[in-house]
Known about the structure:
Chain A is an all-alpha fold. Chain A has one domain. Chain A has 7 helices and no strands. In chain A, 29% of the residues are buried. Chain B folds into 2 domains: 1-33; 41-136, Ferric Hydroxamate Uptake Protein, Chain A, domain 1. Chain B is built from 3 helices and 8 strands. In chain B, β6 (104-110) and β7 form a beta hairpin. Chains A and B meet through α5, α6 and α7 of A and α1 of B.
Amino acid sequence: MTEKKAISVKDIALIGMMIATIEIAKITMAALPNIELTSFLVIVYTLYFGKRILFVIPAFILLEGAMYGFGLWWIMYLYAWPLLALIVHIFRRQESVWFFCTISGLFGLSFGALCSIPYIFLAGPGGAFSWWVAGIPFDVIHCVSNFVLCLVLFVPVRTALNRISVLFHFS
Amino acid sequence: MSQSTGSKKKAVIGIAALAVLIAAVLIIYFVARPKPVQGAKALTIEVVDDQGKSTSYEVHTDAEYLRQAMEETEGLTFSGAESEYGMMVDTVNGVTADYNTDGAYWAFYTGDSYCEYGIDSQPVTDGDTYRIVYTTE
Lengths: 171, 137
């Protein structure tokens, strides 16, 4: 008779690996404007490792704050990344690569709008709108790069994660 | 076969949806993006040449000093020798004042007062008139 724990040692190791890969991907691609793998990794980790993403995203956000300071951008992270994970979780039964490429692209395109929310309180709706408009070219880059990265990486990463899930009995 | 058709359909829908949204936000961007604002200082620059003919220029500028304001003034041309005090203007609108020949020079005024500084360090103030007058001793 074994007691099933809410989170096992294996889960903790996996969560650590997920946080590390997201952070390393983010740091290595930091020089490229709005081209990032965080969105893609949040999508696949949410699809393949389910509830563990609930530990990964807060830890990633805390790590980012600890490394770069807890500025206004950090407030934006508090809801932007959980929102992406929530959307992916809702549509987790979808199997189309194109569907998740579209989700990833839409997230990139709306990232500036999401990040402008705090400015509604700081500078009013007009200030938030201006802030969003000024960043639209970067949102378009974010959208296209998210879509392309997801399209290129989704199938090979899905294959690898399937193997890992079977090998280490992750469900 | 039908699965492949369904996948293609999803691909087309996804790409089309993103393309429409990208076009929409780009339209918003080109309509509402920040546009360059007119300079905050409104200046008048008046040139009086060797024939006594006066030409006035209106310029809107953010320049701090007269030289930059002059450079931004459409229709006004000037040149001169660079020195440690900035440019010593000898030619304005193609008219050269040669002090060695007839004691002529270009005199700079702010309002009716002689400018205290060279054009590189003469501050400009909103609403002021600057006069560049061909003068002979």
